[in-house]
Design brief:
single chain; mainly alpha; 75% helix; 0% strand; DUF2742 domain-containing protein
């Protein structure tokens, strides 16, 4: 801690202006390197697909946002929300893949049944023609 006295008695001070300034100075090049690129939300598929400067800018924005927050519970909640977003997007991707596979299996099963019925019909016609 660089702040000797907390703002509220019995509660540690988690926010120090000069610390934020120092971190901002270190991270600002990441933000400016993104230029005119849109900075995606950290942890999303857009973030994963973005170019390196945009990904680093998203990390810098998240870090700075977490640093200016005074309450450590809110910081933890923001991080948990980011993790949950990634997990949810992964779960949705897995669900969509499973549904696509199931649909493909169903379509193949229907096609196989249709082919079998046609083969049976032809066999019955051939047997009746004799």
């Amino acid at each position: 801690m660089t702040t000797p006295v907390p703002e509220e008695p019995g509660r540690p001070c988690w926010w120090v202006e000069r610390d934020v300034d120092a971190v901002e100075t270190a991270l600002w090049p990441w933000i400016t390197a993104a230029g005119e690129m849109e900075i995606p939300l950290l942890g999303t598929p857009d973030w994963a697909a973005a170019e390196v400067p945009a990904r680093l800018a998203a990390v810098a924005v998240f870090v700075l946002g977490a640093l200016v927050e005074r309450d450590p519970t809110v910081i933890a909640a923001r991080l948990a929300a980011e993790i949950a977003t990634v997990r949810l997007s992964n779960q949705l991707a897995r669900k969509q893949a499973a549904e696509a596979i199931a649909e493909a299996i169903d379509a193949r099963a229907v096609a196989t049944r249709m082919l079998q019925r046609e083969q049976i019909r032809r066999a019955d016609q051939a047997a009746g023609a004799r």
